Every structure is written in structure tokens, then in C-alpha cells.
Amino acid sequence: MRCAENDIAALDASDPLAPARNAFDLPENLIYLDGNSLGPPSRATLSAVATTMNSEWREDLIRSWNTSDWIGLPKRCGQKIAKLIGVQRDEVIVCDSVSVNIFKLASALLAKSSGAIVVHADEFPTDAYIAIGLANQIGADFRRIEETAGPEALNETDGIIIKSLVHYKTAAVANISDWEKAARQKGVSIIWDLSHAAGALDLNLAVDGAEFAVGCGYKYLNGGPGAPAFIFVKKERASDLTQPLSGWMGHKKPFDFSDDYAPADGIERFLCGTPSIISMTALNAALDIFDDHSMAAIEKKARGLSDLFAEGCAELGLAPDAPPAEERRGAHLCFAHDGAYEIVQTLIKRDVIGDFRTPNFMRFGFSPLFLRYQDVSNAVSILKEILDTEEWRKPEYAMRAKVT
Amino acid sequence: MRCAENDIAALDASDPLAPARNAFDLPENLIYLDGNSLGPPSRATLSAVATTMNSEWREDLIRSWNTSDWIGLPKRCGQKIAKLIGVQRDEVIVCDSVSVNIFKLASALLAKSSGAIVVHADEFPTDAYIAIGLANQIGADFRRIEETAGPEALNETDGIIIKSLVHYKTAAVANISDWEKAARQKGVSIIWDLSHAAGALDLNLAVDGAEFAVGCGYKYLNGGPGAPAFIFVKKERASDLTQPLSGWMGHKKPFDFSDDYAPADGIERFLCGTPSIISMTALNAALDIFDDHSMAAIEKKARGLSDLFAEGCAELGLAPDAPPAEERRGAHLCFAHDGAYEIVQTLIKRDVIGDFRTPNFMRFGFSPLFLRYQDVSNAVSILKEILDTEEWRKPEYAMRAKVT
């Protein structure tokens, strides 16, 4: 049963996160259900990048490495993310991309303890591709386990598993604690990919026993297109690990220009080249909004928004490809439909932005910091119209763009 | 003999590159001799990043991957750089950092033909550190050759050499053609690091027989702090090479989400994760200034500026650690001095920006696009004052910052 209009208004009126929307500067009338793919800029982010460009870079030039602490940005961003995922502040650093960071961690772990690299059959593609690339490079085995396989599928001949915490389609959430216990018994290390989780779920990696993770800066963290990624290594494990992308920024004393490579003591050894300051400035500013809101409140509202959407869709005969309703879920929903690509294009034309995921999924994200319950309700109404009128069958909506 | 003031004015008056300075928005009275370390933003760069932030990202959000061709940025930037280094337009792509790109190329080449990884004893640190990291990872040999060693130092048991075209201290320029011929006879591949060369020297890599190179976006290309780097692979060689950082952006069809990794046909297979759009936008805009000026004119003026500086310094008893005057040289000069760190700090206090390189070098870069002969002449006068008065001996100038 869909909520009546006055119920929707009441939900927004009593929403403790409602003020967060003002921190963003979203286009009017746009219903943005794609913050899971690219979060929008906060006003603070727009302003921070302008300052970095016009003042730090243009005026202070090279001096800003010290005077604006550009050199400290990877650590400062890491400290903010550490809080969001429930680990110690000096256990996270921001650098490179998710793909590169998976490679660093996977290679470092296999150097300590060899074995196969494992991924689920339906793991996010780049995670599997990096696993394949590394396996071919160092002659490790690579194997896939079934989509639904639990930790019992791990073998003692496995070395590591690269695993999304939140599935990029179903939004199913793995139980970190169960996986870690089972993996440890088999001597397997888990690299958690938090890309679809960080900034959306209330995470406590330390409590749950996770030791290694990577994640994306441009989804729920709103760090901007292609924002730098992050990497987490539990402090006790960091100094054991030698990662092969040993560029100068991971050196204990980068500006001593010494002949030998001596890795920094903790998480900084996972740095490689010069950090991408302009992009990292955006992420750094974007993270500040999380100071004002608890991750528990954020996860709760994400669930409320996506439940509201799912209820509306149920009346349209659409059921998400999602875990059972009583289970924990990430902040997005996927619906299979033969016209998925065309429906998403039609929605975009109507200013409701979601995305298409091959082969036939419509995906919608429910970022709780800027979405109102009213937005979600309106999105359902527009979707209903598009389906009722079959507007999506117009040939113009079938043209495929390069990026989907 | 130093030029008289009216000679300096004449040099500026007849400088064909003089109009280029207007494309930048440098702080008044600043003499910026550090464009070799971090180039300044052009006005077009400041404006392009503002557009990406406020319009492409803020308004168009995820749609900009298609509508603003964000997805094509790595190729579009690569095409512009290809022109500057004298290779075909589809042989260069922009991505990641110099360190990461060296790793990709070195690993791909050694997978085809094993052997030791070679660097000069005085190679730029991160190049050597990456060589060490890769050697340890895959069990390859790593060896250093003497600072002054020529291509005859290569052995048939060597696989690759990672070599700066322009030395980061002396600015000595290697002869690509000689090195390539000698290396090929020994079956050794050369990865040229063009970081201190691209945008400063008139390069013709194709003519000279180079097949592989990487380079930096934030020095003479003015792409901004930590700008993405570039990678060049000769077309005929690209499809032979499999690089291990096989993230989704290097896939033939990234958005098909297929199980297997099928690398893109040409240089795009060297992409890895999602490109850092905000930083890459800056580099992309910065490169446009090279459309208006030939690299021959740029190299010629760089030489003119640095010769003028060297002549002035000679009168102060300072001789650069540089190749003989009749040889080709990059666009910077290094001077050894026991008070190098302090003198550089004193110059900075006086608005003359150079940098310090360990253990005792002052380094000054002569970016021809925004420097006037008058700036160089003034810098010499200020340096003379600082040395004459021994102002640099004040204790305040000896405080070491984190980044030098």
C-alpha cells in the first residue's frame, strides 16, 4: 500500500536528515536516484575546489604542498573515511583508484601467503579483472565461486577473496563477521570492496574483524567523478605487508631521495605516486557533511527511502532483485525488465535519473543526504506514467550511449 | 658578461612566445622558476575546472560521462600530448601516475621477454623504487648502472631499462636514437620517462625510434598538482602487451560487464580504474596553449632563458651542474651550494620561487610560456643580493618543511 500524500509530507517533516539537503545545490526539479553511481557536489565541495584552483594553485603554486598541506591530504581524507567505516583514524589512506588499490593489497597479501585468488561469479567486473590480471602476472590461481556461495566455499588452498560488501545489483549485504571467522579458519584473507557501502551503511569494520578493505570516493561519499579511492589496512597488519607499487609517496622519507626503498611505517606505505590534489580536494570537502549526521541515521533513512520506492513499484508489478525484506540491504534497488534500458532513458528525459546495468536491470540509488521522501514518491508516479503510456517504447530511447 | 638592461628588454620585445604569458594569471611580482616542479594554471584551465564543477558535475551529474564526453578524456588528453612528443595521436593515453604507469609498462614488457630491470644510479627515485617493487614482486633481477654509463652498459641478460630522458638534476638529455639502437641489439626495451622533457623539449619519439614512454602532467604541461600522467606505446607493440593492472577502463567493452577480461585493442588497454575527471579536466585545458606555439620555439626560448641565468650566476661564482655548454639541455638548472636549502628559502621569501633538491642543490626551472627574460635577469639580481648580504644565513631559513 502506497503512502498517502500527507503521510509522505509527514515523513519529510520528521526526517532528522532533512537539513542535509541544503548542503547540496541540486538542479531544481531533478530527482537524482543515481548518487550510488556519482554523488552530487556539496556547496562546500564546489567552494573548496575553487579555493584550491584560484588561491592555492594559482597564487601559492608549489608552496601549497606545505602551506596548504597538500602533502597531508591523503591522510586527512583517510581519517575522515576511517570514522565512517569504523576503524582507527590512521588505518585508512586515500589514493589511486579502487582497481589499483585492490591490486596493491592482493599482491601484498599473496606475497605473504600464497594461494588462489577467489571472487564470486557475479562480483563487480573490475574486481574480477584485477584478480585475473594479478593472477596472470604472478602465476597465481584464479577461481570463481557461485553467486550465492557463502564462506564455506573457501578452501585451504585459497589465498585471498576479493568481495564486495554490498552487491552492486542486489544490494545484498554480506555478514563481515561470519566471513572473517570462516576465512581465518582456512587461512584466507578477505579484501572487502566497500564501494557500494561506504557512506550508505553504518559500518564497524574493526568490531566485525575486517582487516583489509578498499572503496570508492565518488558514490555515496560524493567525492566527484573519478574521485580517488581509499584503502584500509588494520594497523597490526600494515607493516607486515609489502605492496609492489612502491612509488615515492609510500617511502618513509620521500624527499630524502635515498637509493633504497624503505616503506613508511603504517598505511602510508600503500601510497604510490603524487596525489591528485584537485580531485582529492573535492573528496576532502565532500566528507565533512558526515560530521553532522550519524551513519546509523543515514542507513535508516536509506532503507526508508528504498522501502518506499519498492512499495510503489510493487503496485506497478515490479519487484526488486533484492534480498528478502527482513534482511539488511544497501541503499540501491535493481529491477529486471526487458525494457530496462529504454525505461531508464525515458525517466532521464523526465528528470528522474537512475542507471541501467547490463543485461536488463534498472538501478536506482537512494542517497539519504539529499533525497526527500517526496522525491521518491514523485519518481514512482513518473515511472507509473511511463509504464502506463508505454512512452518508453519510442525508438529514440533505444539509442545506446557509450557509458551506461 | 651579463646582458645590459636594454639588451634584456630587446630580448623580451622580440620574443615570439611573449604573448603566451597572458594566457596565465600569475601573481604580480612573483618570479616563478619552479614550473619544472609544478606548472601554473592557465586562465583556460581555471575556467575549465569551474565549468566541470559547476555545470558538468553539479547540473548534469552522471549524464556528463556521455554529454561532456568525460569517458573520452583520457584519449583526448593523450592526443594532445602525442603531438608534443612526436608520436601518432592514438598512441598516448592519460591515466594514473607516472609511478603506476611505469609499473604497467615494465611488467607488461617483462612478461614478453624476461631479464633484469636496469636503472641509472642517479635515476629519479620513484622510477627506481617502482623497479625495485616490481622486481621483488615477480622475482626479476634489479641492477643499477653507473651515473654516466651509456647504452654499452646494457647486457643481453637485461630485460628493460627505465630511463629519464632529461635528468632531474643536471638536465642532461639522453640521445634517444643512440640508446634505442644499442638497446635493440641487446634485446632490451627502454621505458623513457619524459617527466622533465614533455612540454619543454622539441621531441620526436617516433623518428628517434622510441617505443615506450611515460611522463608527468604537472610540470611543463601545467596540468595541476598531482595531475594524471601519460603513457605512450608504439601502435605496433600495444596489442602484444598485457599489463597486470587490468581494470575495467582498459577492457574492450567496459560496460558489457563480461566475465572475462578482454583488453582494448590499442593504447586504451593501459587504462585501469575510473579516470579522475576533475584533475584531468585541468590537464586537458592546460594542453591547449601548445596549439599556438611550436615545441621548437619553446625549447629555443627555454635555452635562452637558462643560458641568461647561467651567465648571471657565473658572475656570482656559481656554475651549474650541467652538461657542457654545447650540448642539449632540459629547461632547468641545478647549482650545488652548501647553503642550498637556506638560499632557496630566502629567495622564496623574496618572491623568487625555485626548489631545493637533496643533498645540496638549488634547482631553477625556465618555463618559456610565462617567463620573461626580465624575470630571469631580476632573479639573478635578487640572488646576488642574498649572497652578497649573506641574508640566507639567518636561522629562520634553515627550518625544513615536509616537502622540499
The global form of chain A is globular
Number of strands of chain A: 12
- Please give the largest β-sheet of chain A: 7 strands, mixed
Which structural class should the secondary elements of chain A be placed in? alpha/beta
SSE pattern of chain A, N- to C-terminal: HEHHHEHEHEEHEHEEHHHEHEEEH
Low-confidence stretches of chain A: none
CATH architecture of the largest domain in chain A: 3-Layer(aba) Sandwich
As a percent range, the share of helical residues of chain A equals 25-40%
Distance between the termini of chain A: 32 Å
CATH topology of the largest domain in chain A: Aspartate Aminotransferase, domain 2
- Strand sequence of the main sheet of chain A, in spatial order? 2-8-7-6-5-3-4
Task: State the oligomer.
Answer: homodimer
CATH class of the largest domain in chain A: Alpha Beta
Counted up, domains of chain A total 2
Number of helices of chain A: 13
Which protein chains are joined by the largest interface, and how many residues does each one contribute? A-B, 92 and 92 residues
CATH superfamily of the largest domain in chain A: Type I PLP-dependent aspartate aminotransferase-like (Major domain)
Average of pLDDT of chain A: 96
Task: Describe the protein's architecture and organization.
Two copies of one chain form a homodimer. Chain A has a seven-stranded mixed sheet, sandwiched between helices. A three-stranded antiparallel sheet of chain A has the order 9-12-11, with helices on one face. Chain A has a two-stranded parallel ribbon with strand order 1-10. Chain A has two domains: 133 residues, Aspartate Aminotransferase, domain 1 (Alpha-Beta Complex), CATH 3.90.1150; 245 residues, Type I PLP-dependent aspartate aminotransferase-like (Major domain) (Aspartate Aminotransferase, domain 2, 3-Layer(aba) Sandwich). The mean pLDDT of chain A is 96. The two termini of chain A are 32 Å apart. Chain A contains 13 helices and twelve strands. With 404 residues, chain A is of the alpha/beta class. Chains A and B meet through α2, α3, α5, α6 and α10 of A and α2, α3, α5, α6 and α10 of B.
